[in-house]
Amino acid sequence: MNSLRVAVAACLLWGLVLSGCVRSVPPASEAGGGEELVVWEDRRSLADERLVALATRGPESVRVRALRALARIQDLSTLEPVLAGLGAAEVPVRDEAAFAAGVLALSWEPLSDAEKARMTEALLAAEASEKDERVRRTLLDSLGKLATPVAVKRLTERLSEERPGIASRAAMALGVAARRGASLAEVPLERAAVLLQPGQSEESRYAGAYLLASAKRAEGLGWLRRCLGDEAADVRALCVKGMGDASGPEDAAVVGRLLGDEVPRVSAEAARALAKLASRCSGHCTPMDELLALAPRAAQVARGDSAAGHALLALSQQGLPEAGRRELETLRQSLQEAVPGAASEVAVGDLMNLDCRLAAALDRLKGEVDETLRCGRGQVPEVRRLALGLREVAQSRVRDGASGAVPYLSHPDSRVKLAALEAVSARPVPEATGPVRALIGGEDLVVAASAASAAGKLKDAEALPAVRALAERVPEEPDMVAAVAEGLVALAGKDAEPVLRIWLNHPHANVRRVAAESLSGLTGQPVRAPHVALPENARRPEPAPAGSTLTFRTRKGDFTVALDAEAPLTSGNLVTLARKGYFRGITFHRVVPDFVAQGGDPRGDGEGGPGYSIRCEITRRPYRRAVLGMALSGKDTGGSQFFFTHSPQPYLDGRYTAFGEVTHGMEVVDRLLEGDTLLDVEVSP
Predict the structure, then answer these.
(1) Do 568 and 540 meet the contact criterion of CB atoms below 8 Å apart?
(2) How does DSSP assign 350-379, residue by residue?
(3) Residue 25 needs a FRET pair 20 to 30 A away by CA distance; which of 210, 231, 486, 589 works?
């Protein structure tokens, strides 16, 4: 099944609110823009304003494709041409302009107040006069991404629309606005309750739950309690998530019932919510009592039900207060006792990976690496155990906890060094100064850059020459720019300005973004980088063949992904890497239950890649459950790291390239835990 048919089928299944499905943008060759337009887009070139000209006049299909190119280039100098498209006579052009405006609203380089005001004005005027419901929904989406107070006010008004498609879309957009930092204090939550009423469609109920969960207001608790019994798993998960953010320990029993939910991502949200409620306890803590109900999960994992471990993983990632030590130890004991009856080596590995996750949560309470030194019964590599413990120490509230991390700065494995740097950066201690300085000149540039940042936090003036030397390498090694800039600014102050000014003209968008952001902080005045096109010889992936699929093979089974024809270069990059055998033996280093499973990093710590970066190809594919996305650390920083969504994630839309969808074997993705290994990724055809 090709990706277009998958998208259409998903639209029919999820409906308009969840999917945001729209007509596909024609390829440049069909649109009349030709290969030239594709090259301009990939080079991030405005082609002496010729691309802007295509976006503002000409045949409908050309304008649509050119507007998509402007959205992907994401240069704020093109704001006016994009907004001009909102008044086009053709519906597809207005729809694409509305989408492009939303992508610009999410710009990695912040909009000025004047730009926000201009965009708000244009979107409000367009939405007020728009007759096409599809375009109105896109406009509401973009207002949510913009998240200005006036945009929130309009979205609040649209909650009262009689047409459920508009009211639901407004609710979703308000949820996205909240994730963008907007206040929903004045939003009447009873309108969300209307969407949640029995008899409403699943997409309406989801939208109502999304708004309630995003608002995090005590007034919504009554409706959240009622929707815990919704027939749709994604609605239940949102409602229990909302309970964790807005409720108190008195709701522990209500939330605890969801621990037994048959859908793993729902029970994971319940475990996470109970951990949040436990942090608000004083005296006897009922949420802690409820969490002990997770002990039988160990036996399920031992029988091969890996997904049953998601609740334990969510709990360990969230962590518990000091009073929860007994509960964490009890759950660890249940995992260890389940090992003799494990059905397979895979099950033993799952049990012991979870054991080390809980051990790391205990180390967070102690503020030192201790339990992770002995966890896992030899099933979990030492490097992984140490990195887990050190990263939890970085989150510890123990004041002097980072002192114990200092010896690990000299560990032979770079992943342990990086985790130790994270710990001493979070809580700088004087004894870390020398070891950190020594790492700045090391061969591992990821570690060196992190050490430069840590030196800045340690205020180690003697490290400045080494940091300056590292800064000279940024033009050739742009991936380390953020950490190096942080250290350079902290140690050099205003004297860092000349280097940052040079970076403002670097061809890599993320280097320019970091330079502008750093200069804005140094000078106290907003600084914006100029537009710079990539050189003609910039690396460009080969497009994926039409209809390409990837089959991911793991010890827990296989799953298949249909790649998106609207992101041919992003898809082609993964196809090329897979054909080279790049992914063999690489782990899923990050699994966050009810959010994502992420892999593709050869280092295994979230900091690795193929040695180059690719440009973003933002598509109209919404982040529903089972969507494949490209992980980023800034604009145009894609490489080999990818993620799969466990559940809908609307706030990711328009920000991270969505370029495929699991068509077979999503239950395997649900079984993945941190540390699971890819045996291979095979390409077809």
Answers:
(1) no
(2) HHHHHHHHHHHHHHHHHTSS-HHHHGGGGS
(3) 210
- CA–CA dist 31, 38 (Å, integer): 11
Secondary structure (3-state) at 522: helix
pLDDT, tens digit, 9 for 90 and up, residues 558-575: 999 999 999 999 999 999
Q: In what order do the strands lie in the sheet with 590-592?
A: 590-592, 596-599, 642-645, 627-630, 658-664, 557-563, 549-554, 678-684
- Of 546, 547, 633, 563, which Cα lies nearest the Cα of 598? 633
Q: How many CB atoms lie within 10 A of CB 326?
A: 11
Residue 400 has pLDDT above 80, yes or no: no
Which one, of 443, 526, 515, 445, lies nearest residue 485 by Cα? Answer: 515
Asked whether 154 and 125 are in contact (CB, 8 A), the reply is: no
Query: What's the CA gap between 102 and 95, in Å, rounded?
Result: 11
Q: Which bin fits 229, alpha (ψ -120 to 50), beta or left (φ > 0)?
A: alpha
**Would you say residue 19 has pLDDT above 80?**
no
Chain centroid to CA 646? 12
The DSSP bridge partners found for residue 554 are 557, 678
**428 near 451, Cβ under 8 Å?**
no
At 448-465, the pLDDT tens digits run 999 999 999 999 999 999
Residue with tokens 């990976």, as numbered in its chain: 353
Name the residue among 199, 314, 230, 163 with its Cα closest to residue 213.
Answer: 230
Helix, coil or strand: residue 562: strand
pLDDT value for 16: 30
Q: What is the residue-averaged pLDDT of the chain? A: 94
Q: Which helix (H) or strand (E) element contains residue 672? A: none
CA distance 43 to 53: 17
Within a 10 A sphere around the Cβ of 134, how many other Cβ atoms?
Answer: 19
How many other β-carbons are positioned within 10 Å of the β-carbon of residue 2? 15
End-to-end CA distance of the chain: 12
Phi-psi region of 283 (alpha: psi -120 to 50; beta: other; left: phi over 0): left
Nearest to 421 by CA among 474, 407, 482: 407
Q: Tell me the residue type at 661.
A: E
Find all residues with CB under 8 Å of 328, minimum gap 6, and list them: 316, 320, 358, 361, 362, 365
Q: Which helix (H) or strand (E) holds 290?
A: helix 286-291
CB 143 within 8 A of CB 151: yes
The whole-angstrom separation of Cα 100 and Cα 79 is 9
